[in-house]
Amino acid sequence: MASFFETRIEFIKGVGPQKAALIGAEIGLFTYGDLIQHYPFRYEDRTKFYPIEEVHGDLPFVQVKGKIRRIETVGEMRKKRLVAHFEDGTGTLELVWFKGIQFVAKKIQLGVEYVVFGKPALFGRKISIAHPELEVLTTQNEKASFLQPVYHTSEKMKAKYLDSKAISKMVRQVMVLSEPHINETLPQSLVTQYGMIEKKLALWHIHFPGNEELLKKAQFRLKFEELFFIQLRLLKLKLTRTEKYRGAVFSDSSLLTDFYKNHLPFDLTNAQKRVIKEIYFDMKSGKQMNRLLQGDVGSGKTIVAFICMLLAVGSGAQASIMAPTEILADQHYQGLKPFADALGIGIAKLTGSSKKSERKVIHAGLLDGGISILVGTHALLEDVVQFKNLGLAIIDEQHRFGVAQRAKLWGKNERFHPHVLVMTATPIPRTLAMTLYGDLEVSIIDEMPAGRKPIKTLHEYDAKRLQVFGFMKQEIKKGRQIYVVYPLIEESSKLDLKDLDDGYESIRRAFPDQHISIVHGKMKPQDKDFEMQRFIKHETQIMVATTVIEVGVNVPNASVMVIENAERFGLAQLHQLRGRVGRGAEQSYCILMTEYKLSKEARMRLETMVRTNNGFEIADVDLQLRGPGDITGTQQSGVLDLLIADIAKDGQILQAARNAASDILEADPKLEKEENRNILRHIKSLRKAVVNWGRIS
C-alpha cells in the first residue's frame, strides 16, 4: 500500500488536477511528502508593528498599521504609478503600485485602518513601500504575532493565485492530516544527547514557528537528521565494500626501498611521506582500498602515485594511471618513464591516438606481464585492454570520470578488485569531501615541495596595461614564457569581453618580435597539441589561450600568467589557472586584469586570490560564494540533493552527524539493536532509488 506521504497533492482541498499539474511542472512538488519537505526559504517577522517614524530604507521587511489619507496617479505611459499616502500619527509613508493600478484603486478605502507589510525603500527624502501587502485591520491580525513562512513559487503559479500564502495554506492542511503518520526517525539517545525536539514538532515549527527559538530548534533537528542519514548511507557503503571486497595484499617494499635509496632525485615533503604511509597501510591490509588523494597544483601527487605503483609492482602486480586528456597522459608518461627505466620496469602509454601496431604490442605486454605500468586516457577502459594482474588503478582528476568508469577499471581483475586511488588537484572543502566522497578514505598533501617560491598574485586595472606589457617584456628578456588567458573565443553581443581574436591581435602588436601560440576549445585536438608542443619546446614565448590550459600541462619555464577579465572566472578556475606557472625554481607571477567596475562578489574573489595561495582556503571561500551545487562534479553525484542543510554553512552539524552515524554503525553495523529500530524502520520505508535518506517516503 502506498504510504500517506505518497498521496498526490491534487487531493488537497482547493487544489485539484490542474493546479497540481502546474505545481508539479513548476517547482517539482507531486506528493504530500514533497509538500511537507518544501521548506520556507525565509520568514517574515509579523511579531512587531513599527511606528512610521522608525521605518528606514535599510530595514528588510516591516509591518505598520494606519490609514490611507489620499491616493493619486503620478507619471505618464510606462512611468505611470499609483501612490497612496499612508499615516499612523507618527509620520507618513507612500505606498506605490506600478502594476494593476485600476484594480488596486477600486479596492482602497480612505480613512479605513489597514495593516501594511512590505520592504521599505528611500526615494529622495521619502520612504515608500512598493506593492505592499494590504489587509484591513482586525482584532485577529492586530494580535497575531508570528513568523510568516515564505515559500519558493514561480511567476506562472502566481498568475494562477498560487503564491507563497497559497502554498502555506496547502502545507497547513497536510500537516494537520499527517500528525499520526510522522514517526520518530532517530534513536532516543541521539535526540537526548543533542537536546533535539521530536520529529513531529520540528516539521510543524519549520513551517509555522511559534517563535524564533522554536524555529532554530526545528532547523537544527532537520539539518542534523538530513546530514546524519546521508553520512549513514555513505558509511554503510564503505563498510559493505570493505567487508565484501577483499583486496590483494601488497607488502613487499623492496622495490620501493631501492627507488628511495638510489633513484629519488629530491627529498619528499612530510605531507607526501604521511600520505604514502596511509596508502601503504591500506594496500597491505587485505581490504580493497578506495582512497581520494587531494593535493594542490604542484604539491607532488604524481611522484606519490608512482611510489604506490612500486608497491603493487614489487608484489608482482600491475598498475595503471588514467588521465582525462592526451596531453596530461603524455606528461605523466614522460615524467615516470625515466624512473621506470632506471628500475627495469616495463611502462607503456595508451591513448586514442596510439597506432594499431603499438596497441598490439601493448595488449600482448599487458597479458604476459611484460608491461607493469600502463599510463593512458579513456582508452584504458576498452574491453580489449586486459591485464595479467591489475593491482592498482589510479584515476587523475576524478571529476572528469563518472562512477561507471571507475567500476569498469574494477572489473579488469577477476580474482581481486584492484585497489583504487583517485587524485584531484581541485581542493575540495572538507565538508564537501565528507559528503561527496564520504565512502572513500581521504588523504591530503597540504605542503609544497621545498624550493618552490609562492606565486606572487597582483590585481591590476586596465589603465595599467602598458606597465603590465613592460613587465612581460622584462620577463621574456630573462628567457621566461608567458600565458595570456581570455574568457571567450569570439565576441559576444551580450558580454563586452575582450575576445581571444582581439587579444591575439593586441598581443601581436605589442610584441612584434616574439613568437606567439594560440589555443582554444574550438580547435581540432591535433592543432591544439601542435601549438601546446611548440610552447613546451620554447619555440613560442607567449601562449594566448582560453581556459583549455587549465588542467595539468607542465611548462617549468612559464613564469607569468596574465588573466584578462579575471572577474569573469570562478575562484576554483582562477586558482587552477594560476597553478600553470610556478612549476620551476624561478619567481612566478599571476596578474589579474579587470576593469574598474566590479561586483562585491568579484572583488572578494580577486582579494582572496591576491591574499592566499592555499587551495583549501580558496575552496572554502568558493563554497561560501557559490554554494555546493556548482562545485565540480557535485551535480551528477545526486548526493547533494539537499532539502534544508547547507554544506557551506553547516560544517559543524555535518561533523557531529558523521560522528554519530559512525559510532552507531561501529556498535551495530546491521542496525539490529532495539535502540536503532527507528533508523532501520525509516530506511526500510524509503524507495530503493532514493539517495538522500533524510527524505520522507
TrEMBL record:
Family matches, as Gene3D superfamilies: Nucleic acid-binding proteins, P-loop containing nucleotide triphosphate hydrolases
Keywords: ATP-binding, DNA damage, DNA recombination, DNA repair, DNA-binding, Helicase, Hydrolase, Isomerase, Nucleotide-binding
EC code(s) of this entry: 5.6.2.4
Gene Ontology molecular function, alphabetical: 3'-5' DNA helicase activity; ATP binding; ATP hydrolysis activity; DNA binding
Domain Helicase C-terminal, residue spans: 464-629
Reactions performed catalytically: ATP + H2O = ADP + phosphate + H(+); Couples ATP hydrolysis with the unwinding of duplex DNA by translocating in the 3'-5' direction
InterPro entries named among the record's database cross-references: ATP-dep_DNA_helicase_RecG, DEAD/DEAH_box_helicase_dom, Helicase_ATP-bd, Helicase_C-like, NA-bd_OB-fold, P-loop_NTPase, RecG/Mfd, RecG_dom3_C
One Pfam family, short name: RecG_dom3_C
SMART domains named among the record's database cross-references: DEXDc, HELICc
Top class in the EC scheme: isomerase
Residues of the Helicase ATP-binding domain: 282-445
GO biological process terms, semicolon-separated: DNA recombination; DNA repair
Top-level taxon of the source organism: Bacteria
Family listed: Belongs to the helicase family. RecG subfamily.
Protein purpose: Plays a critical role in recombination and DNA repair. Helps process Holliday junction intermediates to mature products by catalyzing branch migration. Has replication fork regression activity, unwinds stalled or blocked replication forks to make a HJ that can be resolved. Has a DNA unwinding activity characteristic of a DNA helicase with 3'-5' polarity.
The protein's name: ATP-dependent DNA helicase RecG
Organism whose genome encodes this protein: Roseivirga echinicomitans
